[in-house]
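Box 3.1 A note on notation
Throughout this textbook, protein chains are presented in two layers. The first layer is the amino acid sequence; the second is a token string describing backbone geometry. Keep the layers aligned when reading.
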Amino acid sequence: MPARPLAQHAEWRWATTQAQLVLNSRDLGLILRFYRRVHGLNQTALGALLGYDKTYVSALELGKRRIDDVGSLRHISAQLRLPPHALGITDPADADHRAMVQFGASTVRLAEIARQSGHASEAVSELWPLVARLEARLEDGHGEREVLHLLGRARIGLGVALGNVLPEERLGTAAAWTLKGLALAVYADDPQFTGYALRMHGNECRKAGIRGAAVDRLTRAVAVAPDDAARAAALPLLARAAGALGDAALFDRTIQQADHLLGSVPHTSLFNPFALHEIRLRGLADTGRVEVAIRLTENGPAPTLAVAPQWRVIELITVAGIMLAAHDVRGAATALDSAVGEATVQRLPHQLQRIMRTAGTRLPEVQRTAAHALERLRGEMAA
């Protein structure tokens, strides 16, 4: 019997929109023709793979012969790496697969809630085993659409959660995981999913210091956004990336678009007045307009329930940096002390490193406190 085609991208063809239509038809002849076309096989080669002769394959494809016995259908399903239900088979293995997909989707949702609630380390713990299990299934050749979609979301969720709990020197790992998720989103040809993946990967690129790529991904996320809600999810992240890149014109234009949507789109943990205020302050400082940022510092909105806990830490550090620029050393020290406490409780090493940079030589005591907290977190992570 010839070796099974090894090209992974060909196995993934079962996850495309066209493949989904073919599988949903449960038409064995159509499925066989699709498989041959994807893998570049003729009827003789496909027959050898299945243990049938060319004439029999031709008859199956033309609908002149039918296969009704479960054993033969299960054999075809196994050889072609098809989900059994596509051929009308329901067995314990397929039921287990369905349960795994449903459980996995719930795990991804709960991990996202945990991360936004300030428990990113718990989100990582939940997502690691799910990603490993889904990748093992993919390695076995099972690249159904629902599996790839779930794996893409799990990889992205894992990357974003890692972006919260890893120190700066390891943030490239978070960006790499979100890139893996983006690859699956693009392959699945799902615009909504692709926009989400572009947003998440772009933001992790920014955090890892890959600023040009961050702006590119986030600009594309805004461009492909199918509605105002998706656009509102991408604009704050693009504004942050544009500010980090020092592109004042893009930053101003993006912030203006976000402000325009504030009154018409429901607020989220990212898209809300509090988060946008912090993004505005940091972007103004990053683009050389510290004086404007100083004037805006005291007029920020209060955090609401929609604001994720880590945003309070982020905002305290940003405000402290602007206070130092305004020579308000005492105010900056108070803000950074609060930030150290919150970043320690929420286990945010990257934010502790931001605190250390912001404190610098002007607030050595705060810098030492943050360094000690960071060292403790690193020790816990190593253990």
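Residues 198 and 217 are 5 Å apart (CA to CA). Residues 8-86 form a domain with the 434 Repressor (Amino-terminal Domain) fold (CATH 1.10.260.40).
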